[in-house]
Amino acid sequence: MTIDAQAPQQERQVLTQNPLTGLPSDIAVSQLDQDPFEPLSVGAMVDRVAAMAVEKAAHPWVFFMRSLVGGAMVAFGVLLALMVSTGVKTPGIASLMMGLAFGMSFVLILVSGMSLITADMAAGFLALLNRIMRLRTYVFLVTVGLVGNIAGALVFVTICGAAGGPYLGAFAERAATVGALKAGQPVWTAFLLAVVCTWFLQTSMCMYFKARSDVARMAFAFYGPFAFVIGGTQHVIANVGFLGLPLLLNLFHPAARRTGITWGFGDDGLLTNIGITSVGNLIGGALFVALPFWTIARLQRR
To answer: Tell me, what is an example of a GO biological process annotation in this record (predicted)?
Structure first.
């Protein structure tokens, strides 16, 4: 995922008249090719994202390291979101502050070329639909990316939990409140909110790879996490931070506020939440983003 990737050039020339411009279509296509900021077609974007997933699967150790760093970057956003919303009493304003602070995490991941599992779920599914990736390779991609992201996020929040200092007091109260809210939702609610989360997030990823200017790309990358945070949805890696941070604060600082969150598979368990949100995020990115874009690309090419 690099911001300086070159867009493929259109090569096909059609000699029919363009109904919008009145000019021959070959002239219209040439004019688009001469504009370096004209967005890619849906088909070109689909092929580009699918090829990116294949490249990641071909280099598993590199992909794992990119996932570690990507998970830590998501945890950056979690920490900042909790910090800026501490002490804010109005729910809407608190959510807005969290979204603004969290939004840059996805920008960091995409621009730096790191990996986020929810993006890889959609990208790999496009590769499956394009028949350039096998199902077992897709399962391998998702597994490695998920483990890497979780590990990276846990490393970051463990360091913050051990540090204490500014992350105690009112901040610890805020972290406990947000974590308990996410962990305490019914299974069906958490699942559907996870679907909505990647509907937001992976639409922004596709728009990122469709755009050809740096400003447009970063705006689209910012929109995804901004939208899913202020919408109160569930993201598997973000939740590792939101649930893991209060647990680790309790571990290192017994005076920090305690919640009903646990590490395991029981009610309000971190592993339970990871399982539910992983499935919801997969369905949201694959069926509500990747499949529609792939279908549009196929229909346009016909």
So the answer is: nitrite transport
Question: Which residues fall within 8 angstroms of residue 242, CB to CB, at 6 or more apart?
Answer: 78, 82, 175, 178, 179, 182
Indicate the SS3 state at residue 85. helix
Give the chain's end-to-end CA distance (angstroms, integer).
Answer: 29
- At the topology level of CATH, where does 40-301 sit? Glycerol uptake facilitator protein (1.20.1080)
Whole-model pTM? 0.86
* Burial of residue 77, with CB atoms counted within 10 A of its CB: 0-12 exposed, 13-18 middle, 19 or more buried: buried
**What number is the average pLDDT over the span 120-147?**
97
pLDDT at residue 266, rounded to an integer: 85
Q: What is the Cα–Cα distance from 157 to 294, expressed in whole angstroms?
A: 37
CA distances from 155 to 63, 250, 256 (A): 18, 16, 20
Cα-based angle 49, 51, 57 (whole degrees, multiple of 5)? 110
Q: Where are the domains of the chain?
A: 8-38, 40-301
pLDDT digits (tens, 9 = 90+) for 5-60: 444 444 344 444 444 334 444 434 444 455 667 888 999 999 999 999 999 999 99
